[in-house]
Amino acid sequence: MSARAVEVLKSSGLVIAEDTRVTGNLFSHFDIHSPIISCHKFNEKSRTAEIIERINNGTDVALVSDAGTPLMSDPGYVVVNAVIEAGLDVIAVPGASALLAAAVVSGFDPGRFLFYGFLEKKEGAAKKELETVGKLPYPVVIYEAPSRIVKTLEHIAQVLPGRQVSVSKEITKLYERTFRGNPLEIIEKLTGDLLKGEFVIVLGPADVKAQEEDNEIMAVKYLAELIGQGKSKSEAAKIAAAEYNVSKNDLYKKAHEA
User: Fold this and answer.
1) How would you list the strands of the sheet with 114-118, edge to edge?
2) What percent of the chain has pLDDT over 90?
3) For labelling alongside 10, which of 4, 91, 99, 181 has CA 20 to 30 A away?
4) In sequence order, which residues have a C-beta less than 8 Å from that of residue 222 and are 6 or more positions away?
5) Mean pLDDT confidence for 18-23
């Protein structure tokens, strides 16, 4: 907690918290006595009108989540968006950020990266998401719960074989640890107490050149299959090019060279 964040919470006329018990412990530590009400994903909509009314009446309202930054895979978007729509000011008071810290220590270039948050819980949907973000030429930051970290790393190994990752446990906290390398190798290290706490996975960037070369090889094979099925060379080139995102003209030339 920064000195500015403590001062803002002390001077606020109302603090809306994801969990009042967690925030209450924080307040006890910093001797903060501002009133607190709950505001989480189950009651955000019903709280919005009350919060806007309090601000319009001159109350400074602060929003906090249990850990990390509100809205970033945490509650708060509904309220913040409603406040903005009402023409009221919203000011961010930055604090510890797991996603930024994980990106910085990952070993991958964080000059450009995507924050994805949590993957879908259903296995099929999660694998499709990994297929999509795995094509990006820059790192992707993914949040994961301790109960699913092993399964998610297994999915990465299956969907993106050979892809390197960084896995940070409890980052920005007392017992933070970061593991880098192959997902399956990291799984072997995550035993006992190391499976406790929240995790941040940083998926390494795709090797775009290698990916393009693989696509070209697969497209040529598919081209031959289509021609063997009776498709014209022109039609086969068009279909294979669309399937593997390669040049139709290049495939058409290869069809005539074969």
Assistant:
1) 114-118, 140-144, 199-203, 165-169, 177-181
2) 64
3) 99
4) 239, 240, 243, 244
5) 92
